Amino acid sequence: MFDSKVHLIRSDEFKEEDFSQVVNLLKQFNGPIEFISAETKYLQSAPPVLSWMTKLEFEKKNPPQFSANREQISPTYSMFESTPKKSIVFPVEVPSLSWDTFFAACIDYRMKHQIPEKDLVILLTDFSNDKNWFAGIDSTMKNYFIQTSNWHHFLGNSIDSRFPIAYEIVVWLLRSQMFQNRQEIMDCVHKGSTGCMMDFCENKKDIVLKMRTADICNDCLKVIQNREVDRPFARQVLDSMDGIRQHMMFRERSEFLNSPSKMEIRGFMKHIFLKDLGDLEIHLNPKEKTIYLFFLNHPEGVRIVDLIDHKTEISHFYETFTNSFETAQIAQAINLLLDPTEGNINQVLSRIRAKFRSAVGSRLANFYTIEGNPGDPFKIHLNRELVTIEKISHH
Ligand SMILES: [Zn+2]
User: Fold this and answer.
1) Nearest CA to 171 among 214, 120, 228, 231?
2) In this structure, are 68 and 140 located in the same domain?
3) 247 and 368 in a common domain
4) Which member of 15, 111, 291, 358 has the greatest number of CB atoms within 10 A?
C-alpha cells in the first residue's frame, strides 16, 4: 500500500503562481498520493553559471564545464523571464547547481520539518543542473529535483510549462516505486525514442514525443506488475499522465479549432478556473475581478460611459473582493474606476487582457477578455453556456 506523502518544495526562484498551478493540476487526480506543498530558501540566489556555446549542446544530456568563479549571471538573458517567452540565444549562460546541492536542500527540509523517512521530497527549481537533466533522484530514491525552467525551448510557446513539470513529477513517483535504486532505473531506460515514459531522451528534444503519447510500453508495464507496485498508486499515476496529456492536447486543439475551455467561478471569493485547460486558475486582483464578473453578468455588453449606471452592482463585487474595510477608501476606488476620464478602467481592462494572454495564449484569450470599440458596448464574447458559477449558500 502506498501511504507516503509527497512533499513538493518550491525553491525561491520558481514563481509562486506557477507552483500553485502545478500543485492544483496534480490534485485533480484521485488516489492515494497526497501532495503537500512547501517552500525553501536554501538554494543560493545567484549560483554559478554553465555555458552552452550551441543549441545542439544545450539539448544534450551531458555537462559542459562550470565557468570559473563567475558571480554574475549574464545580463543579456534571464532564464526566469516567462512572459513573453523569448527564444534562447546562444551562447548562453544558465545558473546551475550540482545534483548534490539539490538533494542537500531536500535533506535540510526533511530535518527542519521532521519529515518521516518514507515520505518523498521533490524540489522544484528554475536552476539547471550539472548533468543537464530535466530531473534527478538521489541514491535513497526518496529525494528528487525537477527543473521548472526552459520547457518552452523544448515544447514550444504554445505549451504551458505546468504540464511537463507535473508530468515529470508523476513519472518520477512511478519510477520510485518500480525500482530499488538508480542503477536499476538506468538498466531499464529505453535508449531510443519509443514514446514510453522510460525513454531516456538523451537528446532532450525527444521529450516532446514522450509527453504527447504519455504512454507506458508493455515491458515497463511488466516491471510494474512484477514489482507489485501498489495498484491504486499506479492508477493515480497513469490517470495523471493521461489527464495531463489530454489537457495539453486540449489547448493545442482548441487553438486550432478556435474553441475555448469551460469556465468555472468557484467559492465566495469567485475564483476563476478554466476547466478544460487543466483547471488553470486566472488570478485577478480585486478591481480586475470586480470588472470581470460584472461583464460576465452582462452578456449584452455595456458601454464604458454607462458603467456608472451600474455602480451598485459593481460596488457590491468590489466590497466582496477588496481587502479594505474603509468605506471611504472603497468609495474612492469605485469612483476612480467608473470615471471614464480617469483611464483607470482602461488600465484594468488591459491588465485583464495581459493575464488571459499569458495564461492561454493570445489566440484563445480573445474569447475571455472584455472587448469593444470606443463608444460601443464592451463585452466578453465567451458563450455563457460554457460558464458555471458555483452557488454559495449563505449561513
Ligand atoms: Zn517502456
Assistant:
1) 214
2) yes
3) no
4) 291
The CA 236 to ligand 1 mean position distance, Å, reads 18
In this prediction the pTM is 0.82
User: Does some domain include residue 268?
Assistant: no
CB 40 within 8 Å of CB 105: yes
CA 155 – ligand 1 centroid, Å? 21
- List the single range of 23-37, 186-200, 269-283, 324-338 with lowest mean pLDDT: 186-200
Both ends of the chain: CA-CA distance in Å?
41
| C-alpha 299 to ligand 1 mean position (Å) | 50
Residue 382 and residue 318 share a domain? yes
Largest Cα–Cα separation, the chain: 71
- For residue 183, report the distance from its CA to the centre of ligand 1, in Å: 16
Number of Cβ within a 10 Å radius of residue 176: 22
Q: Tell me which residue range forms the domain holding 304.
A: 275-389
281 and 248: one domain? no
Q: Which residues have C-beta within 8 Å of that of residue 54, sequence separation ≥ 6? A: 90, 91
Asked if 172 and 319 sit in the same domain, the reply is: no
Same-domain check for residues 246 and 121: yes
Same domain, 111 and 235: yes
Query: Nearest to residue 153, comparing CAs of 211, 89, 95?
Result: 89
- Which pLDDT score, from 0 to 100, does residue 85 have? 54
d(Cα 37, Cα 101) in Å, to the nearest integer? 20
Query: Tell me: the pLDDT tens digits for 346-393?
Result: 999 999 999 998 888 888 899 999 999 999 999 999 999 999 999 876
